[in-house]
Amino acid sequence: MFLKRSADSITVHSPAKLNLFLELLAKRPDGFHELETIMTAIDVFDTLRFTATDDSQLTLSCRFAPGTEAAAQGEDADALLGDLPTGPTNLVYRAVDLVRRTAGIEQGAKIELIKRIPAASGLGGASSDAAAALVAADIVWKLGWSRTKLSELAAQLGSDVPFFLHTGLFGNGMALCRGRGEIITPLPVTRRMHFVVVRPPGGLSTADVFRRCTIPANPFAASDLCDTLQSGTMTDIGRRMHNRLSEPSRELSTEIDRLTKSMLQAGAISSQMSGSGSACFALCQDPRHARRVAAKLKSQRLGVVFTASNCGVQWN
Ligand code: C5P
Known about the structure:
Keywords: ATP-binding, Isoprene biosynthesis, Kinase, Nucleotide-binding, Transferase. One of its GO terms (biological process) is terpenoid biosynthetic process. It is an enzyme of class 2 (transferase). This is 4-diphosphocytidyl-2-C-methyl-D-erythritol kinase. Its EC number is 2.7.1.148. The protein has about 325 residues and is α+β, with helices and mostly antiparallel strands. The protein has two domains: about 180 residues, Ribosomal Protein S5, domain 2 (2-Layer Sandwich), CATH 3.30.230; about 120 residues, GHMP kinase, C-terminal domain (Alpha-Beta Plaits), CATH 3.30.70.890. Strands 1, 2, 3, 4, 5, 6, 7 and 9 form an eight-stranded mixed beta sheet that branches. It has a four-stranded antiparallel beta sheet with strand order 10-11-8-12, sandwiched between helices. Strand 2 and strand 3 form a beta hairpin. Helix 3 packs parallel to helix 4 and helix 4 packs across helix 6. The radius of gyration is 19 Å and the shape is globular. The chain starts with a strand and ends in a 7-residue tail after the last strand. About 50% of the residues are buried. The model has no long low-confidence stretch (mean pLDDT about 90). Cytidine-5'-monophosphate (C5P) binds next to strand 3 and helix 7.
Protein backbone atom coordinates (compact mmCIF):
# COMPACT_ATOMS: atom_id res chain seq x y z
CA MET A 1 0.00 0.00 0.00
CA PHE A 2 1.56 3.30 -1.08
CA LEU A 3 0.90 6.31 1.02
CA LYS A 4 2.83 9.17 -0.48
CA ARG A 5 4.89 9.57 -3.56
CA SER A 6 7.02 12.41 -4.89
CA ALA A 7 9.74 12.61 -7.56
CA ASP A 8 12.49 11.22 -5.33
CA SER A 9 10.63 9.59 -2.45
CA ILE A 10 7.93 7.03 -1.69
CA THR A 11 6.29 5.78 1.51
CA VAL A 12 5.02 2.18 1.62
CA HIS A 13 2.97 0.43 4.27
CA SER A 14 4.09 -3.20 4.51
CA PRO A 15 1.66 -5.63 6.21
CA ALA A 16 2.27 -8.54 8.57
CA LYS A 17 1.01 -12.06 7.75
CA LEU A 18 -0.44 -15.05 9.51
CA ASN A 19 -0.07 -18.67 8.40
CA LEU A 20 -3.54 -20.22 8.58
CA PHE A 21 -2.08 -23.52 7.36
CA LEU A 22 1.48 -24.83 7.06
CA GLU A 23 2.43 -28.40 6.16
CA LEU A 24 5.86 -29.84 5.39
CA LEU A 25 6.15 -32.15 2.40
CA ALA A 26 9.87 -32.96 2.00
CA LYS A 27 13.40 -31.88 2.83
CA ARG A 28 15.25 -30.71 -0.29
CA PRO A 29 18.89 -31.29 -1.20
CA ASP A 30 19.53 -27.52 -0.81
CA GLY A 31 18.50 -27.73 2.86
CA PHE A 32 15.15 -25.95 2.41
CA HIS A 33 11.79 -27.69 2.92
CA GLU A 34 9.04 -28.19 0.36
CA LEU A 35 5.88 -26.95 1.99
CA GLU A 36 2.29 -25.87 1.47
CA THR A 37 1.16 -22.83 3.36
CA ILE A 38 -1.87 -20.54 3.30
CA MET A 39 -0.90 -17.04 4.30
CA THR A 40 -3.04 -13.98 4.81
CA ALA A 41 -1.87 -10.39 5.11
CA ILE A 42 -3.18 -8.61 8.21
CA ASP A 43 -3.71 -4.93 8.89
CA VAL A 44 -0.67 -4.34 11.08
CA PHE A 45 1.89 -2.40 9.09
CA ASP A 46 5.49 -1.29 9.15
CA THR A 47 6.15 1.97 7.28
CA LEU A 48 9.07 2.27 4.91
CA ARG A 49 10.13 5.62 3.47
CA PHE A 50 12.61 5.42 0.61
CA THR A 51 14.32 8.60 -0.59
CA ALA A 52 16.86 8.79 -3.42
CA THR A 53 20.03 10.70 -2.53
CA ASP A 54 22.71 12.37 -4.66
CA ASP A 55 25.59 10.29 -3.24
CA SER A 56 26.21 6.51 -3.33
CA GLN A 57 25.51 5.84 0.38
CA LEU A 58 22.78 3.46 1.57
CA THR A 59 21.58 4.45 5.02
CA LEU A 60 18.89 2.67 6.99
CA SER A 61 17.34 3.87 10.22
CA CYS A 62 14.90 1.74 12.22
CA ARG A 63 12.69 2.56 15.16
CA PHE A 64 9.54 1.34 16.82
CA ALA A 65 6.50 3.48 16.12
CA PRO A 66 5.64 5.85 18.97
CA GLY A 67 2.87 4.32 21.01
CA THR A 68 3.76 0.70 20.36
CA GLU A 69 3.93 -1.30 23.52
CA ALA A 70 7.67 -1.89 23.03
CA ALA A 71 8.41 1.81 22.46
CA ALA A 72 6.61 2.58 25.70
CA GLN A 73 8.64 0.02 27.63
CA GLY A 74 12.06 1.33 26.63
CA GLU A 75 14.75 -1.23 27.31
CA ASP A 76 12.36 -4.15 27.20
CA ALA A 77 11.62 -3.38 23.56
CA ASP A 78 14.13 -5.88 22.18
CA ALA A 79 12.64 -8.74 24.15
CA LEU A 80 9.10 -7.70 23.34
CA LEU A 81 9.33 -6.87 19.66
CA GLY A 82 12.77 -8.13 18.65
CA ASP A 83 16.07 -6.64 17.60
CA LEU A 84 16.27 -3.92 14.93
CA PRO A 85 19.51 -4.22 12.91
CA THR A 86 20.31 -1.25 10.64
CA GLY A 87 23.23 -2.62 8.57
CA PRO A 88 23.59 -5.37 5.95
CA THR A 89 21.99 -7.92 8.31
CA ASN A 90 18.68 -6.11 7.82
CA LEU A 91 16.76 -7.67 4.90
CA VAL A 92 15.71 -4.19 3.73
CA TYR A 93 19.33 -3.16 3.34
CA ARG A 94 20.06 -6.41 1.46
CA ALA A 95 17.03 -5.88 -0.80
CA VAL A 96 18.13 -2.39 -1.85
CA ASP A 97 21.72 -3.49 -2.28
CA LEU A 98 20.54 -6.42 -4.46
CA VAL A 99 18.57 -3.99 -6.64
CA ARG A 100 21.67 -1.82 -7.07
CA ARG A 101 23.90 -4.74 -7.99
CA THR A 102 21.33 -6.23 -10.40
CA ALA A 103 20.75 -2.87 -12.09
CA GLY A 104 24.48 -2.04 -12.07
CA ILE A 105 23.89 1.36 -10.48
CA GLU A 106 25.55 3.15 -7.60
CA GLN A 107 22.78 5.51 -6.57
CA GLY A 108 22.36 6.12 -2.89
CA ALA A 109 19.21 6.06 -0.80
CA LYS A 110 18.02 7.01 2.66
CA ILE A 111 15.61 4.40 4.05
CA GLU A 112 13.58 5.04 7.17
CA LEU A 113 11.75 2.09 8.67
CA ILE A 114 9.12 2.49 11.36
CA LYS A 115 8.33 -0.88 12.95
CA ARG A 116 5.05 -2.07 14.36
CA ILE A 117 5.40 -5.76 13.43
CA PRO A 118 7.27 -7.75 16.10
CA ALA A 119 10.46 -9.43 14.82
CA ALA A 120 11.40 -13.14 15.05
CA SER A 121 7.72 -13.91 15.49
CA GLY A 122 6.53 -15.68 12.31
CA LEU A 123 4.59 -12.57 11.28
CA GLY A 124 6.76 -11.87 8.22
CA GLY A 125 7.81 -8.33 9.16
CA ALA A 126 11.32 -8.48 7.68
CA SER A 127 10.07 -10.19 4.48
CA SER A 128 7.29 -7.65 4.05
CA ASP A 129 9.69 -4.73 4.57
CA ALA A 130 12.06 -6.29 2.01
CA ALA A 131 9.26 -6.60 -0.57
CA ALA A 132 8.32 -2.96 0.09
CA ALA A 133 11.98 -1.95 -0.37
CA LEU A 134 12.21 -3.76 -3.72
CA VAL A 135 9.10 -2.03 -5.03
CA ALA A 136 10.17 1.36 -3.67
CA ALA A 137 13.64 1.14 -5.22
CA ASP A 138 12.18 0.05 -8.56
CA ILE A 139 9.79 3.01 -8.62
CA VAL A 140 12.02 5.77 -7.22
CA TRP A 141 15.04 4.76 -9.31
CA LYS A 142 12.72 4.42 -12.36
CA LEU A 143 13.95 0.93 -13.26
CA GLY A 144 10.60 -0.20 -14.71
CA TRP A 145 11.18 -3.84 -13.82
CA SER A 146 8.44 -6.42 -14.41
CA ARG A 147 6.73 -8.23 -11.53
CA THR A 148 8.50 -11.42 -12.75
CA LYS A 149 11.91 -9.79 -12.39
CA LEU A 150 11.05 -8.41 -8.96
CA SER A 151 9.80 -11.90 -7.95
CA GLU A 152 13.15 -13.44 -8.84
CA LEU A 153 14.92 -10.94 -6.59
CA ALA A 154 12.31 -11.47 -3.87
CA ALA A 155 12.92 -15.25 -3.86
CA GLN A 156 16.67 -14.65 -3.51
CA LEU A 157 16.04 -12.59 -0.38
CA GLY A 158 13.79 -15.05 1.48
CA SER A 159 11.08 -17.67 1.10
CA ASP A 160 8.24 -15.36 2.24
CA VAL A 161 9.24 -12.23 0.29
CA PRO A 162 7.44 -13.26 -2.97
CA PHE A 163 4.15 -13.63 -1.04
CA PHE A 164 4.37 -10.02 0.09
CA LEU A 165 5.34 -8.82 -3.35
CA HIS A 166 2.41 -10.57 -5.07
CA THR A 167 -0.25 -10.73 -2.44
CA GLY A 168 0.55 -8.57 0.55
CA LEU A 169 1.39 -5.37 -1.31
CA PHE A 170 -0.61 -5.78 -4.53
CA GLY A 171 -3.14 -8.63 -4.30
CA ASN A 172 -6.20 -9.36 -2.18
CA GLY A 173 -3.98 -10.50 0.69
CA MET A 174 -4.44 -14.27 0.78
CA ALA A 175 -2.53 -16.98 -1.09
CA LEU A 176 -1.56 -20.63 -1.17
CA CYS A 177 2.25 -20.78 -1.31
CA ARG A 178 4.20 -23.83 -2.40
CA GLY A 179 7.80 -24.79 -3.17
CA ARG A 180 9.86 -23.29 -0.37
CA GLY A 181 7.12 -20.65 -0.15
CA GLU A 182 7.89 -18.71 -3.32
CA ILE A 183 5.33 -20.31 -5.71
CA ILE A 184 2.24 -18.21 -5.18
CA THR A 185 -1.39 -19.00 -6.03
CA PRO A 186 -3.66 -16.13 -4.95
CA LEU A 187 -6.85 -17.26 -3.19
CA PRO A 188 -10.02 -15.37 -4.13
CA VAL A 189 -11.15 -14.97 -0.53
CA THR A 190 -12.92 -11.70 0.15
CA ARG A 191 -14.45 -12.32 3.58
CA ARG A 192 -13.12 -10.48 6.62
CA MET A 193 -11.50 -12.55 9.34
CA HIS A 194 -10.73 -11.30 12.81
CA PHE A 195 -7.79 -12.29 14.98
CA VAL A 196 -5.96 -11.57 18.20
CA VAL A 197 -2.20 -11.89 17.87
CA VAL A 198 0.13 -12.36 20.83
CA ARG A 199 3.90 -12.14 20.59
CA PRO A 200 5.46 -13.53 23.79
CA PRO A 201 8.70 -12.07 25.17
CA GLY A 202 11.41 -13.82 23.15
CA GLY A 203 11.32 -14.71 19.47
CA LEU A 204 12.29 -17.86 17.59
CA SER A 205 14.81 -18.29 14.78
CA THR A 206 13.23 -19.76 11.63
CA ALA A 207 16.36 -21.77 10.85
CA ASP A 208 16.41 -23.27 14.40
CA VAL A 209 12.78 -24.31 14.11
CA PHE A 210 13.19 -25.89 10.65
CA ARG A 211 16.33 -27.72 11.86
CA ARG A 212 14.20 -29.60 14.42
CA CYS A 213 11.20 -30.42 12.23
CA THR A 214 10.20 -33.85 10.95
CA ILE A 215 8.40 -34.56 7.70
CA PRO A 216 5.05 -36.26 8.36
CA ALA A 217 4.40 -39.63 6.70
CA ASN A 218 0.86 -38.52 5.81
CA PRO A 219 0.90 -34.76 5.27
CA PHE A 220 -2.33 -32.77 5.55
CA ALA A 221 -3.53 -31.09 2.34
CA ALA A 222 -4.14 -27.34 2.14
CA SER A 223 -7.01 -27.82 -0.34
CA ASP A 224 -9.57 -28.52 2.42
CA LEU A 225 -8.93 -25.17 4.06
CA CYS A 226 -8.80 -23.39 0.66
CA ASP A 227 -12.41 -24.53 0.02
CA THR A 228 -13.54 -23.80 3.57
CA LEU A 229 -12.12 -20.28 3.46
CA GLN A 230 -14.52 -19.45 0.62
CA SER A 231 -17.75 -20.84 2.04
CA GLY A 232 -17.32 -22.48 5.46
CA THR A 233 -18.16 -21.09 8.88
CA MET A 234 -15.44 -19.67 11.12
CA THR A 235 -15.71 -22.86 13.20
CA ASP A 236 -15.07 -24.95 10.05
CA ILE A 237 -12.07 -22.75 9.25
CA GLY A 238 -10.76 -23.05 12.81
CA ARG A 239 -10.99 -26.86 12.65
CA ARG A 240 -8.90 -26.98 9.48
CA MET A 241 -6.17 -24.60 10.59
CA HIS A 242 -2.85 -26.38 11.02
CA ASN A 243 0.83 -25.61 11.53
CA ARG A 244 3.34 -28.48 11.41
CA LEU A 245 6.10 -26.16 12.69
CA SER A 246 4.40 -25.79 16.05
CA GLU A 247 5.84 -29.22 17.02
CA PRO A 248 9.54 -28.17 16.84
CA SER A 249 8.72 -24.66 18.12
CA ARG A 250 7.19 -26.12 21.27
CA GLU A 251 10.51 -27.83 21.97
CA LEU A 252 12.23 -24.43 21.80
CA SER A 253 9.68 -22.34 23.66
CA THR A 254 7.23 -23.28 26.39
CA GLU A 255 5.30 -20.10 25.51
CA ILE A 256 3.63 -21.64 22.44
CA ASP A 257 1.49 -24.14 24.37
CA ARG A 258 0.76 -21.59 27.05
CA LEU A 259 -0.40 -19.00 24.51
CA THR A 260 -2.56 -21.29 22.38
CA LYS A 261 -4.24 -22.73 25.50
CA SER A 262 -4.80 -19.27 27.00
CA MET A 263 -6.41 -18.16 23.73
CA LEU A 264 -8.92 -21.04 23.82
CA GLN A 265 -9.64 -20.35 27.50
CA ALA A 266 -10.24 -16.70 26.57
CA GLY A 267 -12.96 -17.86 24.15
CA ALA A 268 -11.18 -18.05 20.76
CA ILE A 269 -12.74 -20.27 18.08
CA SER A 270 -9.31 -21.73 17.40
CA SER A 271 -5.68 -20.83 18.10
CA GLN A 272 -2.39 -21.52 16.41
CA MET A 273 1.22 -20.43 16.07
CA SER A 274 2.07 -18.36 12.97
CA GLY A 275 4.94 -19.47 10.71
CA SER A 276 7.90 -20.59 12.79
CA GLY A 277 6.70 -18.57 15.80
CA SER A 278 6.90 -17.33 18.40
CA ALA A 279 3.70 -15.31 17.82
CA CYS A 280 0.37 -17.14 18.08
CA PHE A 281 -3.06 -16.01 16.98
CA ALA A 282 -6.66 -16.57 17.98
CA LEU A 283 -9.39 -16.83 15.36
CA CYS A 284 -12.47 -14.86 16.40
CA GLN A 285 -16.02 -14.49 15.08
CA ASP A 286 -16.14 -10.72 14.65
CA PRO A 287 -14.36 -7.54 15.82
CA ARG A 288 -16.28 -7.44 19.12
CA HIS A 289 -15.35 -11.02 19.91
CA ALA A 290 -11.70 -10.22 19.07
CA ARG A 291 -11.71 -7.21 21.42
CA ARG A 292 -13.15 -9.35 24.22
CA VAL A 293 -10.54 -12.10 23.73
CA ALA A 294 -7.75 -9.48 23.49
CA ALA A 295 -8.83 -7.84 26.77
CA LYS A 296 -8.68 -11.19 28.59
CA LEU A 297 -5.26 -12.00 27.13
CA LYS A 298 -3.89 -8.53 27.95
CA SER A 299 -4.85 -8.97 31.60
CA GLN A 300 -2.62 -12.09 31.73
CA ARG A 301 0.51 -10.18 30.60
CA LEU A 302 1.51 -12.82 28.06
CA GLY A 303 3.39 -10.42 25.79
CA VAL A 304 2.44 -7.92 23.08
CA VAL A 305 -1.29 -8.36 22.32
CA PHE A 306 -3.11 -6.78 19.36
CA THR A 307 -6.24 -7.36 17.29
CA ALA A 308 -5.99 -7.61 13.50
CA SER A 309 -8.07 -8.43 10.44
CA ASN A 310 -7.05 -9.83 7.09
CA CYS A 311 -6.47 -7.13 4.51
CA GLY A 312 -6.25 -6.66 0.77
CA VAL A 313 -4.67 -3.84 -1.08
CA GLN A 314 -5.94 -0.34 -1.48
CA TRP A 315 -3.90 2.29 -3.25
CA ASN A 316 -4.04 5.67 -1.57
O1 C5P B 1 14.04 -18.30 3.22
P1 C5P B 1 14.33 -17.79 4.58
O2 C5P B 1 15.58 -16.96 4.64
O3 C5P B 1 13.18 -17.11 5.23
O4 C5P B 1 14.60 -19.06 5.46
C1 C5P B 1 15.23 -19.02 6.71
C2 C5P B 1 15.65 -20.43 7.07
O5 C5P B 1 14.51 -21.25 7.29
C3 C5P B 1 16.43 -21.13 5.97
O6 C5P B 1 17.80 -20.91 6.12
C4 C5P B 1 16.08 -22.57 6.18
O7 C5P B 1 16.90 -23.11 7.19
C5 C5P B 1 14.68 -22.54 6.73
N1 C5P B 1 13.63 -22.78 5.71
C6 C5P B 1 13.44 -24.07 5.25
N2 C5P B 1 12.47 -24.32 4.31
C7 C5P B 1 11.68 -23.32 3.86
C8 C5P B 1 11.87 -22.00 4.32
C9 C5P B 1 12.85 -21.76 5.25
O8 C5P B 1 14.13 -25.01 5.66
N3 C5P B 1 10.73 -23.59 2.97
